[in-house]
């Protein structure tokens, strides 16, 4: 047998890598320069986008030339992308991505550390541990808290409720399964995020295990109604498992009364989980913290830095008060992962703490962004976003043809267009839905929708550091202009 010769085809030289990297950075820089003047959305249909982006292209046997590849990337970025970094983007809860986080994400991909185990990412593991501890401290959890970076709030909620299930079910549910004991129940508001239902499904509890409970006139979960639901379940032989408080609901940004919910959870021996995927960063701002009183009592807590801190996707985290319960829900020990016991004693082996074995270095863009920007700038921006929401709410209240549907607690504003005269509810719902789509197609701003107390609403979520008063004023102008036109057309 002949000795194989080297095959370096995939091992680009540093100069070749640098040239390709410079081309990509130039494209990103052009994107940043052009972004303010670009429409928030493009007019192309899915079929048109598919045709333009793919254009019959398949994975080639031979590499594309750099110019051809760059042309392809320009089409993806400028012609058929959603400009979520634009100041006029106010839909859903999607951040713009920090500027320093972008090259940090490139570096994380370049060094390709695997945070499943400390030996595969030593510095990366220590940075993740440190960043998690910083978030836990800012949110008021005890020093010994544990956590993990995960792909998003859905995974964070799933992990939190998995730990709750394993810790409080009352039997070895990891080994015997949920069928070995009585049914379990989870309690949240009408507006608790749908990922709680998904978690109940994936954990074998069934979506019917989620008790969606009425809210008060501020759209907050009522602790007395939670207690009443728990009492009914106890009488029926159902075991109460977890109370989920939301610190910033998706539709309205409502903050549940967390301290009172913590009291109910403690009274009945339930796990207390706080979904702060959206509102968590606001709870870290001193002036806004009082609205989140009780968050520090959570057994687990979800927070998405890729939302209101605008970190590059994905940067979500889940935190746990009790590390022993956390690790007990996920620990396992394959033979091939054994290490020198003396060395391992001081290691964090993260495959023991999450459902993932292979894990990316998601903490690096967050860490670099915090180092490059400082916390004060983020805190000022969050306060500014709350002020922008108050300004938009004020503009709505001052306009005869606009109606606010809720007072904003954070940075989400829901309102609708109401033309002069008397109109039935169905007409107003249909009209505002058509207004929303017209505003989106126009491309100056891009709000989304909500349903508030049964009424269709135009919803603006203000979390981008590029959004300013001019953008919310443009939203008001566009809603009124399109509302008048569509109402006149009948």
UniProtKB/TrEMBL annotation:
InterPro entries: Aromatic_deC, PyrdxlP-dep_de-COase, PyrdxlP-dep_Trfase, PyrdxlP-dep_Trfase_major, PyrdxlP-dep_Trfase_small, Pyridoxal-P_BS. PROSITE patterns: DDC_GAD_HDC_YDC (PS00392). GO terms for molecular function: aromatic-L-amino-acid decarboxylase activity; pyridoxal phosphate binding. Keywords: Decarboxylase, Lyase, Pyridoxal phosphate. Its cofactor is pyridoxal 5'-phosphate. Pfam families: Pyridoxal_deC. Gene3D superfamilies: Aspartate Aminotransferase, domain 1, Type I PLP-dependent aspartate aminotransferase-like (Major domain). The modification N6-(pyridoxal phosphate)lysine is found at residue 307. It comes from the Bacteria. One of its GO terms (biological process) is carboxylic acid metabolic process. PANTHER family: GROUP II PYRIDOXAL-5-PHOSPHATE DECARBOXYLASE, MIP05841P. Belongs to the group II decarboxylase family. This is Glutamate or tyrosine decarboxylase.
